[in-house]
Amino acid sequence: MSSLFQYRPLFSVQLLIDYYLTEEAGLYQNTPENLMEDVLENQVNTYNIERDLYIEPIDTTKKLLKDNRLIFKRNSRGFFVSGQVSPLASDLFTPFIPLDEPFSLQFAVYIQNPYFYNFTNVRLESDLENKDQFIYYFSNRVNNVVNNETLYLSSPVSDFNDSYAYEASEIFIDADALPNPIMLEAIENNGPGAFNADNWREIFEDVNPLFQFVTNTDRIVSRPSIFKINVENVAEEILVFFINDHNGNLAKRIRYNTPDTGTPLIECELNLRMLDSGCYHIEVQDAIGNSLPELSLTFFMDDNIYQQRPFAIIECFHEPDGSLGEYRWLDQNNQNRLLSPEYTIRWKNRATWWRYYYETAPDLTSSVLENLDPNVNSPNNRILISTSPLALTQIGREIPVILGNGDSQLFPNPDIQMIYPENGRIYSELNMGGGLGPPE
C-alpha cells in the first residue's frame, strides 16, 4: 500500500483575455502556409496570464488552506486549489479531511502589465480620480452558467441601462433580440438617456451563446473595517444601518441619533471590526423604517486589501449543503466525491478608432479606412481613420488598401501603448510620416 499522499483539484479558475485569445475571424496570417486555426491554437498554447495579472491568496485564506491541507497553485491560465484526497473508486476521490463546515477562499488579483487597461475594455480609471476606491469582485455565488458548461465568476452582462453613462468600448446584451440575444458595443461615450443605435455596433454576430465578459457590474468599493459615510444629503436625525452578508443575512445593525435635536446627521462612522473579511451590502432606513436607497452600498471589507489596493478579489465559497449547485466542489449525493469545477473570468479586448497620420494625403482606397476630412484643402485630409472601431489583438488584423498604382498593401496595426480618449471616443494612432495627433 502506497504511503504517498494524493492530491486532486477541488476547483480551478481560468482568467482569459481576448486580446490574446480572440476568436474573431478575418485577422492576419490566414494563408495556406500559416492557417488562422494554427495561429489561434498557438495563441492558446503560449498564453500566460502572469504577463498581465498576478494572483495570490490573502493572508486569512493562506491559513485556511493550511488548516484544510489544501494547496494553491498558479498555472498559465490562472490557478487551482487541490486537496489531499482518499480514493472512492477508479478516478473518483473524496477529501481526506472532510469539508463539513462552510468557508470561503479569497484571492487578490494585481495588475502586472501597465497597459492592461489599454487592451481590455475595462472602464478607464481617468474618471475615478479623487473619487471612491473601487475593486472588481468575482464569486462562485454569481450563478452565471452558459450553455450548461461555462461557469463564469463575473456577473451576467446586463441589458441596456438608460440611467448609466456608458464609456466607449463598454457592452450590453439585448436579451430580447430575435432569434438570439445580441451583444452591442459602445463606439463612443453615451448616456444617461434613451438608447440611440448611432452610438452602438453589434459584435459577435455569429457567436451563440454569447460570451460573458467582465463589466462595470462587477465593480464594488473597497472599505476598511472602520469607515465613515456622508449622510448629509438625506437630512435625517435618526438612521439605522443594516449590514448584510453575502447570503443576505443580517450581520450587524447600527443606529445613529443626532447629538443635537433638530440638527440632521452629517456623517456616520461604521465600526465593523467584529465581522469577517468579505463582501457586504448596506441598507439604510430612517426613523420610521423608510428605505434610503441613495445610501445603499455594496463593498468588500478587509483592512489589508484596502491598503494594498488590488485590482480584483476572487472569492470561492464552499457550502457543504450543496446549495451552490453547478458551482459546488463536492457531490453531496455521492459520498462527497470531487467535482473539480472550472470557473472562468473573461475580459473583452478594447476596440478603438484607428488613425494613420501622413505628411500629405495618401493616394489609396480602402473599405476599412477613410480620410478624416474629405476636404482636400483641410489639414486633416492627410489623416486616415477607421470607418468603425477595431478591436485590438496581439496577432493583428488585416487592414487592406489599394494604392494609387493598383498595388494592394496591408497596413500596420497600432501599439497597445498608445490609446487616446478624445471627445467621447478612444483612439489608437500610427505615425506614417506625419507625426501624431490630435488632429487640427
Structural description of this entry:
- This protein has three domains: 197 residues, no CATH class; 77 residues, Immunoglobulin-like (Sandwich), CATH 2.60.40; 81 residues, no CATH class.
- The protein is 8% helix and 38% strand.
- It contains five helices and 32 strands.
- The chain has a nine-stranded mixed sheet.
- It starts with 5 loop residues before the first strand and ends in a 9-residue tail after the last strand.
- The model has no long low-confidence stretch (mean pLDDT 92).
C-alpha end-to-end distance? 79 Å
In which range does the helix fraction lie? under 10%
Indicate the radius of gyration in whole angstroms.
Answer: 26 Å
Dominant shape? globular
Low-pLDDT runs of 5+ residues are none
Task: Count the beta strands.
Answer: 32
Strand percentage lies at 35-45%
> Strand order within the widest sheet?
2-6-20-7-13-19-18-15-16
The helix tally amounts to 5
Mean pLDDT: 92
Number of domains: 3
Structural class: mainly beta
Please describe the biggest sheet, giving its number of strands, its sense, and whether it closes into a barrel. Answer: 9 strands, mixed
